[in-house]
Amino acid sequence: MDTVENRRTIRKYLQKDISSDLLNDLLETSSRASTMGGMQLYSVVITRNAEMKEKLSPAHFNQLMVKGAPVVLTFCADFRRFSKWCEQRNAVPGYNNLMSFMNAAMDTLLVAQTFCTLAEEAGLGICYLGTTTYNPQMIIDALQLPELVFPITTVTVGYPDGIPAQVDRLPLEATVHEEYYHDYSKADIDKLYAYKESLPENEQFVKENRKETLAQVFTDVRYTKKDNEFMSDNLLKVLHQQGFM
Q1: Which residue stretches of 122-161 are H helix?
Q2: Residue 150 confidence (pLDDT)
Q3: Which of 71, 117, 145, 157 could cysteine-pair with 149, CB 3.0–4.6 Å?
Q4: Domain ranges within the chain, ordered by starting residue
Q5: How many CA atoms lie within 13 A of 159 on its CB side?
């Protein structure tokens, strides 16, 4: 519990190797995560090689931790292995569809989060890269992912070089609903976001971006409608190419 309560995203790492024994032990234990029908619809690509990190870096907008971490893990939704098993056992797989992708994506995120928790308990630091689904084609090409395999998330792993400040979270009442969903009133929104909006670093974000509110930083700068629509179109295109549509 203490590990999760005190966790931080680690973007800078000591140049200290992670042993294969430790990494494999963490990955093997992670496989005990919940999985749809016991199918384990995921694969994990381990990247240690500097040249391979160089290939992956542009897909993640050249964020420093990709090349700076000892290990980069790409967690992929994978229905290829299970489909091949079906075909070799005189069964006809029918997993080239969106529902199957969703099932595999959920499996992948469950095992990825389990790995992250175990890695932090072992003294490692991790950084989750949400950029994986922004540029899936670049990752598919770099890692030679075949049909029915799709990158879902990337995690950089290493021994922390310093301990950064902990990022804020909304209060529990913002995310937990008893019995049924309770919609938010204007007063609720004001109350739930008051602390986040009052943080000096967030007030600085507003000032630096010349906006009126923190929300505008998100909608107008960080996660714009235009960018989301472009990436949505690209995501659907690549899902089709990889056989999930």
Answers
A1: 136-143
A2: 98
A3: 145
A4: 1-162
A5: 7
pLDDT at 239: 97
Q: Give the per-residue pLDDT at 1.
A: 58
Both structure tokens of 58: 């542009």
Amino acid identity for residue 75 in this structure: F
**For residue 241, how many C-alpha atoms fall within 13 Å in the half-sphere facing its CB?**
13
* Burial status of residue 149 (CB atoms within 10 A of its CB: 0-12, 13-18, 19 or more): buried
pLDDT for position 182? 96
What value, to the nearest 5°, has the Cα angle with vertex 113 and ends 109 and 114? 115
CATH level 2 (architecture), domain 1-162:
3-Layer(aba) Sandwich (3.40)
3-class SS letters over 108-129: HHHHHHHHHHHHHHCCCEEEEE
Please name which of 45, 43, 156, 32 lies closest in space to residue 105, comparing C-alpha atoms. Answer: 43
Q: What is the mean pLDDT of each run of 10 residues along the chain (245 residues)?
A: 82 96 98 97 98 97 97 98 98 97 98 97 96 96 98 98 93 97 97 97 96 97 96 96 95
What are the C-alpha distances in Å from 107 to residues 31, 41, 77, 97, 178?
10, 6, 7, 16, 26
* Contacts (Cβ under 8 Å, ≥6 apart) of 143: 45, 56, 74, 76, 151
